[in-house]
Inverse folding.
């Protein structure tokens, strides 16, 4: 119904509310995993909500999807095989397909209904599924990774929702160990890593797991997404042992990828400068998220 959509008292954000004016509800349903809502907002275009948590909006999804895809892929010389965990809306696939070096994109999404709803209401994102390099696997990521050959991927991107509900196991040590095994030497992981304003304890836990699991470098980067709680979201960038990866300086800059732009939607947020800037942290975060 028209009015306001707001979520509050979610255990992830106690005592915090964020509300968007609803022009029209476009879809409401429930899969075997979560409640799914799509509505037209007055400021941010269409909005996708899972279990009461905003996942993306037309207006600001570019910041999240472009950063989570290009921060890892622009940090290694020539990514060929990529795995996406989650990402059922297709936005991350859309961004990965800008890289002409990529030959294979596996995606493991647990909820088919999310994919179907996004194909209907978010064609600018689900276009990612049309790339012939994409192979879709519906199922649990932990199960999927168990059956992946060792050293299979150059990059793994974990585009997960928050660690309550279906994505709880995606912040635990065994999951990161299966990712490390699936990556080739010098391979990279980019993981959704919550807000430095609200979740430094969760981020510290993920950082210590990653520093123990990934023998290369581990860095925290962040970006602005106005419709996420606290208006920012972070990313964990990890590399395995083998050729060192310097995340802070994109050696495979998007500006040099002619495929990145030809016949595709323009890039709206990411560029090589904002790549470098993403790893610059405010003082409190440097203290709380530095190596320990
Ligand atoms: N690909 C859509 C974004 C999914 N990522 C999450 C949405 C919910 C947020 N609280 C955290 C990121």
């Amino acid at each position: 119904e028209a009015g306001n959509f707001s979520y509050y008292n979610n255990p992830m954000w106690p005592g915090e509310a964020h509300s968007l004016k609803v022009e029209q509800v476009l879809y409401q349903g429930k899969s075997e995993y979560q409640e799914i809502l799509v509505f037209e907002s007055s400021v941010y275009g269409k909005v996708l909500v899972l279990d009461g948590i905003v996942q993306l909006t037309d207006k600001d999804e570019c910041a999240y999807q472009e950063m989570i895809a290009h921060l890892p892929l622009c940090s290694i010389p020539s990514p060929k095989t990529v795995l996406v965990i989650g990402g059922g809306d297709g936005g991350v696939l859309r961004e990965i397909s800008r890289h002409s070096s990529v030959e294979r994109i596996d995606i493991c999404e647990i909820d088919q209904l999310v994919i179907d709803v996004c194909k209907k209401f978010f064609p600018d994102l689900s276009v990612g599924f049309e790339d012939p390099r994409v192979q879709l696997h519906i199922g649990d990521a932990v199960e999927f990774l168990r059956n992946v050959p060792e050293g299979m991927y150059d990059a793994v991107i974990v585009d997960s929702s928050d660690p309550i509900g279906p994505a709880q196991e995606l912040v635990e040590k065994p999951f990161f160990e299966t990712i490390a095994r699936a990556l080739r030497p010098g391979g990279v992981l980019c993981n959704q890593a919550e807000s430095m304003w609200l979740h430094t304890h969760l981020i510290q836990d993920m950082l210590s797991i990653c520093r123990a699991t990934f023998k290369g470098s581990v860095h925290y980067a962040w970006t602005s997404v106005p419709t996420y709680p606290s208006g920012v979201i972070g990313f964990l960038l990890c590399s395995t042992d083998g050729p060192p990866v310097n995340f802070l300086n994109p050696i495979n800059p998007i500006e040099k990828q002619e495929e990145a732009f030809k016949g595709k939607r323009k890039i709206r947020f990411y560029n090589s400068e904002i790549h470098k800037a993403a790893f610059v942290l405010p003082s409190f975060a440097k203290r709380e998220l530095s190596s320990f």
